[in-house]
Amino acid sequence: MRFLREENIPLLLHRLSESATVWAPQVVRDTVNTVLFSPWLEGAEVETGLYSMLSAKELVLPATERLFSYRYSQAGGREKIEINADAPQEQAAIFAARACDAKGLAVMDALFLDRSGASYNDGQYRARRSGLTVITLACTTCDSACFCSSFEKGAAETAGSDIILYPATGGYLAEAVSKRGEELAALDLFRDSSLEKPELARTAKVELAGLGQRLFDIYDDLDFWRRTAEGCLSCGYCSYACPACHCFNIFDEAESDRTGGRFRCWDACMFYAYTQESSGNNPRPEPAHRYRNRLAHKFSYYPLNRGEILCTGCGRCIRGCPAGLDLRDAIRAVRAR
Ligand code: SF4
Ligand code: SF4
Fold first, then answer.
1. I need a surface site. Which of 1, 120, 231, 249 has the fewest CB within 10 A?
2. Ligand 2 pocket: which of 105, 317, 319, 328 to mutate (most atoms <8 Å of CB)?
3. Using CA positions, which residue lies closest to atom 2 of ligand 1?
4. Res. 121: pLDDT tops 80
């Protein structure tokens, strides 16, 4: 194990920022306590006590990104189209991600970097992910919305991280969990340490065993889903905030009659228009249909198809739902039905 003194944190951020854009949780200017992962500038204060409203997924799957630009031209009396793919090159580091954020990256890696041919191998995602260093701050405390202890490793999860920092007196114990993490831990800002890791947070738990099948069993009980989703505003915050949700839409936007680009932007299955068909039919017309889909996708179809639960227990969708809906209440209701 290595040790990083508290006063060396700004030096670490400074060193990282010499070759990468460093993202860290920071209070958004002009707000009281809204925290977001944002680019760190020299001297800026990092907020490690409050939870960020959005996860770190924006670093690998931006809310909006251009995939390519196009230009029509005339050559030798013939129409030509030139396409230039955008290839992100930037190096980035995320400081003070939480284990649930990093695990969300690992969950998305399995989908977007799938080399088996069963899914995607997404060039834009790959470029961003391969340039990203993930420095995770282990949780020794939690709040009432956290429920990562419902999953096998809980707050001790290391998937998706390069290095984990454990709070200790006067600084942080540092444990490298990847080659990139080892390189970081070898910097002269760290020193060897024989300290023990601290006790990690233990959150409230929700029982997930058998949930996938249970969701299938009660899929058609629409009255149940109407009661469970009652009050949902279809705002989509839960999907946008989630480190594991990854739905997107693709659209072309013209800049002129000769030029334009293809863009990818976040989408959410909680929106009415997500499943709107051009015929006018919508197979998920009510919030109940959409809430059912969100839960079943995360805990039933996706685990069945790909062996992963699409939730890391970060609690964001619980903390931030404007209607006060709690995913854990829905899980308990499904199990009790
Ligand atoms: S469950 Fe809550 S956060 Fe999600 S769409 Fe409905 S109101 Fe918005
Ligand atoms: S479903 Fe909710 S608790 Fe689970 S990872 Fe997504 S935002 Fe976090």
1. 231
2. 317
3. 321
4. no
